[in-house]
Sequence to fold (147 residues):
Amino acid sequence: MPTPDPSQPFDFYGLPILDRWTVDYPIPHLLVKVNGRDKCPKCPFCGSENVNYHMKKTLTLRDAPFQGRRVTVSVEMSGNQCGKCGRKFMPPRAFQDGRQYRTPRLREWILDHAQEKTHTLVSMTGLGWSTVNGILKQGQQSPASPA
Ligand SMILES: [Zn+2]
Fold:
């Protein structure tokens, strides 16, 4: 059985945390479930506040390591449909790195730890080798990084 561990603060982009638990074997891992539903969304097309949920979806993302554990976050999402113009849209997702199944802060964490060996980064984050290498390569091409 996973052990609930509510003692330590974990923040996920300010979203309400529904559940969290840790797993110690085979790899220390923190699993978190958050509510990513936008409670009061406005239609981005016509501005109407008459918005209905039209589907439920769970988005599972890798997040930056927390207190030496891998982190996986399940974000409960819902698609929205405007009651006025009928268009469908997703709430904004500041916690997702583009279309990748990871958070922007995980990408930043990898770049901050670029001096570590790749297998260490893979093991600490749960990302694949090619993903880690891709992030490092992109980071090196960024003009903000030293050459
Ligand atoms: Zn609308």
User: Anything to note?
Assistant: The mean pLDDT is 88.
